Structures are given as C-alpha cells and as structure tokens.
Fold this sequence. Notes:
By secondary structure, the chain is of the alpha+beta class. Helix content is about 50%, strand content about 10%.
Amino acid sequence: LHKAIHSFPTRRSSDLRQAAESSAAHAHYLAGELAKLGFGLRSGDKPFFHEFLTDSPIEPETLCAKLEEQGILGGLPVDGGILWCCTECNSKAEIDRLIKVIGEVLA
C-alpha cells in the first residue's frame, strides 16, 4: 500500500488552481445561460463555486429524464429545483448542447 500511495500521480498546485478556475468559469457560464431560459438562481447574488441550485420552469424530474434520453446527465432534482455542477472536464460545446436541448424541451 505504501508503494501504491507514493506512485499515485499527483497534480501540482498550479494544475489544481487551473482546474478550479475552469470549473467555476464553466458553472457561471451555465448559470447565465440557464437564466436566459427561466432558471433562476435560488441563491440570488450570493457567490458560488462549481455547484448551484436553480428553480425550474418545468418539473425537474421531467427535464432530467428528457436530458437522459439525449445522453446528457443533467442536474439533480432537489425540492422543485435542480442542483447543477460543472467541472474542468465539461467543455463549452457540451454546455451549449445542454442548453440547446433544454431550450427544445421547454419549447
């Protein structure tokens, strides 16, 4: 076990900072695009990192099921809203596709 721990690849602090900044930027971009579709931030103007909770203009479970049909893992339905999360692994193209599909579902 000791050998395995020491051979596990580590990330430099600059890499972690870049991943965190990317995650936050993606989450804020997603929140802005969702707001255009009527998904209000439940936290109002309070700051957030890479997770945020929104109201949903349609039943959250219905939306998440429609997203799943398109191969998209949506947010987590929570008390009439949706908890969204972005990481550095989410691309702008993936977020834009998510927004496009949500727009189609809402139409």
